[in-house]
Amino acid sequence: MTSSRRRVIYVVLLLATAVICGATGGFFLAITHDLPQIRSLETFEPAAVTHIYSADKELLAELFTQKRVPVRLHMIPDCLRQAVIATEDRQFYEHAGVDLRGILRAIIKNIKVGEFVQGASTITQQLARTLFLTPRKTIMRKLKEAFLAFQLERNYTKDEILELYLNQVYFGSGAYGVEAAAKTFFGRPVSKLTLSECALIAGMPKSPSRYSPLVNKALALKRRAVVLEQMARNGMITQEQVIAARSSPLDLAKSQDISMKAPYFVAYVRNLLEKEFGGARLYRTGLTVYTTLNYEMQKAGEKAVAKGLEQLSARMQKYGVPTVEGLQGALVSLDARQGAILAMVGGRDFQESPFNRTTMARRQPGSAFKPLVYACAIENGFAQNDVIWDAPVVYKGAKEGEDWTPENFSGRFRGEMTLRQALSVSQNIPAVKLLNKLGPSTVVDWAYRMGIKSPLQPNLSLVLGTSDVTLLQLTAAYAVFANGGIATRPFAILEVLDREGRSIWRAKPQMRTVVSPETAAIMTDMLQAVVQAGTGKAARSIDRPLAGKTGTTDDYRDALFVGFSPNVVAGVWVGLDHHDILGDKETGARAALPIWIDFMEQVLAGRPYRDFTLPEGVVKVRIDLESGLLAPQDYPSAVTAVFKKGTEPRKYCTHASKAGFGGL
Questions:
Q1: Is the pTM of this model over 0.85?
Q2: Which one of 84, 300, 338, 419 counts the least CB within 10 Å of its CB?
Q3: What would the DSSP string read from start to end of 534-601?
Q4: CATH at 131
Q5: Which residue in 367, 426, 467, 565 is the catalytic one?
């Protein structure tokens, strides 16, 4: 007999002696000083999966350290329990934690071959090892394992031990426990598995990496056949059932990689959850998280961004722009009434760049910032028919101590203009003059009041969108207009449940009135004019009441459109991460607005027609677009405009009077 074989025999005999001594309890007293307390299992909860759902119940993501969904024993099919017992521990319901007969059989076989080819761990021992010990094979670990198994059997029923084992054991492909295994391999809960499927799963714990059907189908089927024969040999099933189960096709679940569902939103939510609950609780306790996301709207947003960027990329290549690969886009949509985030697209590809451009990127909003300034003016007594001169102006020392001469995007001046007209066509000089009248510091405070959190510079170029903001903040500020002057803090989580289904956290929408209802209605009316006759007129194709504003920064580096219907607010940004120019004439109207239109068309399709409501404190009158004075209903340049009661014009325009349309 070789020396190696003698060593093997010596080791296994020593193990057998130790186990037998352990049955009397005397030997193990020397090694129990560092063993865990078995009764701690009364409060033990195996690590479980946290599920994140959209508001319309679409599973968006699973967060876990170990993919596990604990289930009670009565939910596990009898055939799966029997298959595991037949495969792992045929004497499970008879031994006291350690199967002495099994140990003797293993000793004899190991002696015959001269090496360890067969173990003798019971289900109880395997559970003890999984819960309390390391997998390292040593004599001391086996001794501790046996002692702990005895203690488990003393303190818990067989069914309790089996339930713990079936929820704890690893089945491969990241699945811990039978429920996770059933969903991973077959896409169904464990309670719905067939005999054939139960046999396949039961055969995997012996070597999950080898017997996983996702790794080796042929080997998994061979292992399934072995399990079925063992079940038949133990009288658990008939030979006819074996034949039927062996002939069953391997119908595996289709890919369940859900990590790509709204990934930017999921990452945003995960960060919020980690701050609220901590990583240990989030990844181990099996929370159920219901979010505000509307998955149908999310898909519409993703498609719209992808399509818009593809079209823009093709145009940029024509311009000869060499940095098309850096092109990015972002979209965020909010419920106008409560601030719930309905869709969030933080970039063109999360795998390539997880940087969320709706919440993390601070970019210049360009003229999309102007409505905040105009709202401040309306709240402070201006009316949308007030006239301001669009003409050259110089501000002494206004730009880093030097004189500043603002310019219009078109390079042309239009003379006398109403505030409504100036905002509609996005003239810069009237907006700068308006800001100068209000005072930059006043407008900065006003913007913070409306929901902007990013630092703003109190200078005259502020109205042109030269201070960086996030798309989410800007979109939330526009929601104030749609919501009658009430600001809502954007939120992403509706409710969090623990593993027992009890609510442990629930959203409390934060609302506060920051603008009068009258100002909100007037601003909505002015932004509707942008869509009807201004820079956003391409959105008329949707044929719904809509309001919004384009934004374009210097040299076409950023393109935006932020707008809303009575219920939904959405903001779109397009640009290059490295701040290069997009290309010739790629304005907000050309680069961002088509994405917004595509998204809103899908969102509003099939929804009932709804108009913007007006508060009691305003009136609608017909005014001349040029002069801002009253105009008859059928006057050629007349538009309907909203005013606070008592501030509406009283006189008819001169041209209308001369033409016989009305009188002064």
A1: no
A2: 338
A3: STTGGGGGG-S--EEEEEE-GGG-EEEEEEE-SSEEEEEEEEETT-----TT--IIIIIHHHHHHHHH
A4: 1.10.3810.10
A5: 367
